[in-house]
Design goal:
Blueprint lengths: L6 E2 L10 E2 L6 H9 L4 H7 L5 H16 L8
Antiparallel strand pairs: 1-2
Helix pairs in contact: 1-3
């Protein structure tokens, strides 16, 4: 498994969605901003407590999840 030390999960924060360093910014929000064409600098301007590595890791996490495969287990 990839190492994602900046991606955190808390069932009592943001509905348990993956967030950036225990903050109220989800991976989905960051990935969505990149998909809309925002640059890393623009995202950091919108969320000054984020770092460029947070954005990079959010993208890596999303790519890892998109490549994830389900394996059926025998019951």
């Amino acid at each position: 498994m990839e190492e994602f030390d900046r991606i955190t999960f808390d069932s009592e924060q943001m509905g348990g969605k993956p967030c950036i360093r225990h903050q109220r910014v989800t991976v989905g929000t960051v990935v969505g901003l990149v998909a809309e064409g925002h640059s890393f600098d623009e995202i950091v301007d919108l969320y000054p407590y984020l770092e460029r590595e947070d954005i990079t890791q959010a993208l890596r996490y999303a790519a890892w999840r998109a490549d994830e495969r389900e394996v059926m287990l025998a019951s």
